[in-house]
Each structure stands twice: as C-alpha cells, then as structure tokens.
Design goal:
alpha+beta, 5-stranded antiparallel β-sheet, Immunoglobulin-like, 3-stranded antiparallel β-sheet, 360 residues, 46% helix
Length: 360
C-alpha cells in the first residue's frame, strides 16, 4: 500500500485503542459492510469471489510484505522457522492427545455394547431354562421323578459356587500415573487442569454389567451389583457429568475420567479422603488448551522472549527506537544526521546533563 495512506491508517489504529488488532478489525469490518469481499460467488453471480479466493488474497498480501520484512531483517527468518516448528510440534501433540481420548471413548462404548449383548444372551438362556423347568414340573409323575436329579444337580452347583473363595481386591496394583494426585487404600488418581483420572482395583474378570456406577455433579458411587459400595462420597469439586466416562482395563481395573466443571486444583477426589498439598501441583497447561485470544497473547510473549535470547530488541523496543530516530533526526533537531546510539540515551555524563542519544 502507498505510504500516502499511512497517516490515515495510523489514525485508525490510534482511535481503535487496540493497536494492530483494532486496525485489522476496522479493515475487515469495512470489507464486510461495504464490499462483496466475503460474498461467496455462485456460478451465475456477478459479485463476490469463488470459494477460497478471498482467503488466498489475504494470504498473498501478507506473504508479500512478510518477504519484504525478511529481506530487511534476514536474522528473523530463522526465528520464524523455529517458531513455526514449535507450533507444529504443539499441534501434533494436541492432535495426538485428542486421538487418544477418542480411542478411549470408543473402547468404552464397545465395552458397554458388549455388556448389553451379553446381558441379552444371559436373559435368553435364563428364559429357556425356566421354560424347561416348567415343562418338567407340569409333566406326568414319571417326568417329575426324572426331574429330581436335575434339581439335585442345581443344588450341587449352587453349593460349589458358594464354596469358591472370594476374589480379593488389591488397591495397590495401580496402572495409572499419580501425577498431581496420590494413592489411597481404595484407589489411585491423577489430575490435569481440566480433568481427573481415577483408577479402582476390581475383581479379575469383572464385566461392565457387574458394576453399579453413579456419577453426579458432586457425588460418586462405585459398587459391584448387590454389594456395598467400594467408593462412595461427595466429590471435592463439581464435574461435568455428560463429559465424564468410565471403562474397565484388563478386566481388573476400573478407570473413571472426570471432566472438571471449572479449572481448579483438587486436594482429593472424595471429601474426607487423604489430601495432597496444592503447592506441589504442576498447574501448567498446553497453549492449545487456552482460548484463541489468550493463545495469541502467550505466543507474543514467547516470541518476545525468544528475541531477547537472541540479543534482539523486543517489538515494543523496536517501535520506540524507530520513533526516537524519526523525532531526533527531524529538521529542527540538533542531532540530525548523527548515528543513533540507544545505549547512551538516558545516561548521565558528569554534571553536564544527559548524554545525547547519538554518537558525536
């Protein structure tokens, strides 16, 4: 764009009160209100642009002036490449985490579906056995006599089942990390900024249909059907019930994933259980977990830190330097034509006042 428009655009930037963000808001707002820039052209239309063309135009002009910038400051090209590589790695980690969560949910759904199918088959078998027993009981006397061995066999099987040793639960056999969490006598747990993972040891071979699990916004109950709860109580903080889920791992561990209702550090999962020291918790989180506006601010901070490590001025310092050069090198300035030396600016030289910001 021609330099003659700079004063007008600078005034727009000043009036917006939000720097470059305000300028971009004004420009794209104008394109939206007064032009057909965002109108997606249909085959018979005479206005707008085909799909993707408007975005391509924006990127084309961005790339044009970015290339000019790198020609003036070639050392920043390397900084941009390093920054792009960092962003790509962050995006890869975020996508990998998302895939893991989706795979985990898919596994839980498959287990739940399998449990429903097994329940259906079991109910069908019970109905068939019930019909057979009714036929035997409703038959002739000779058939009643023949049914006695069947009844005796059922009684023997019931006695054998009662005599079997009960499977013990070992809560110490944890399979999850206790990062930012702990191990209690009933369960192990870990947490991040937005989620909590809980693992409970259950008898080997336990199926989803054998469990009675109730997750509420502020309460949890976990039990084997027909038995007292393994874990029950008030949750330390509220959870999003619809986004929380559970599943069985290796037939001997129950994993429960809670989605926190708000970002907070939990001292424990169940109120009254062993608490951790919140001061020891790592409460950091990945950049992509923040909203877009916060991500932009964080990336800018990291960018400025990277410039300082390379011995370069920050963006704000660079703008101040250019402004000082322009003002002090103006026609009425006694320092006009002298090379600018920012290191001398503001330094005292004996009793003669501040030294000039130029090399004399």
């Amino acid at each position: 764009m021609e330099a003659r428009n700079d004063d007008m655009l600078y005034a727009v930037t000043q009036q917006s009160g939000n720097g470059v963000h305000g300028l971009l808001e004004s420009v794209f707002g104008f394109l939206h209100r007064r032009t057909d820039f965002f109108y997606q052209m249909e085959p018979n239309d005479k206005m707008g642009f085909p799909p993707g063309v408007a975005e391509s135009m924006v990127y084309q002009y961005f790339k044009k002036y970015q290339d000019q910038h790198f020609k003036r400051f070639p050392e920043k090209q390397d900084l941009k490449e390093r920054w792009d590589k960092y962003n790509q790695e962050q995006q890869r980690l975020a996508e990998e985490h998302k895939k893991q969560q989706e795979a985990k949910k898919l596994q839980q759904n498959e287990q739940a579906e399998s449990a429903k199918q097994n329940d259906s088959e079991q109910n069908q078998q019970q109905e068939e056995v019930k019909k057979q027993v009714q036929q035997i009981q409703g038959g002739q006397d000779s058939q009643k006599a023949e049914s006695k061995p069947v009844q005796q066999q059922q009684q023997q099987q019931q006695q054998i089942k009662q005599a079997e040793p009960k499977k013990e639960i070992d809560p110490k056999m944890s399979r999850i990390s206790t990062y930012n969490g702990d191990v209690t006598d009933k369960y192990s747990w870990s947490q991040g900024i937005t989620e909590v993972t809980m693992q409970i040891a259950i008898p080997q071979g336990t199926k989803p249909r054998d469990l009675d699990i109730k997750i509420k916004a502020k309460h949890l109950s976990v039990a084997l059907k027909g038995q007292p709860p393994i874990v029950e109580g008030e949750l330390c903080e509220k959870v999003k019930v619809d986004d929380s889920f559970w599943g069985i791992e290796d037939g001997k561990f129950l994993n429960i994933n809670f989605e926190k209702a708000y970002e907070a550090i939990w001292k424990s999962i169940i109120v009254g259980d062993k608490e951790i020291d919140p001061k020891t918790v790592d409460n950091s989180k990945r950049i992509e977990e923040f909203d877009l506006e916060t991500q932009g601010h964080l990336q800018k901070v990291l960018y400025e830190q990277e410039r300082k490590k390379m011995g370069l001025l920050t963006t704000e310092e660079e703008e101040q330097r250019k402004l000082m050069e322009k003002v002090l090198d103006s026609d009425n300035s006694p320092f006009k034509g002298l090379p600018y030396d920012p290191k001398k600016y503001g330094q005292n030289s004996g009793n003669n006042g501040p030294s000039p910001p130029f090399n004399m």
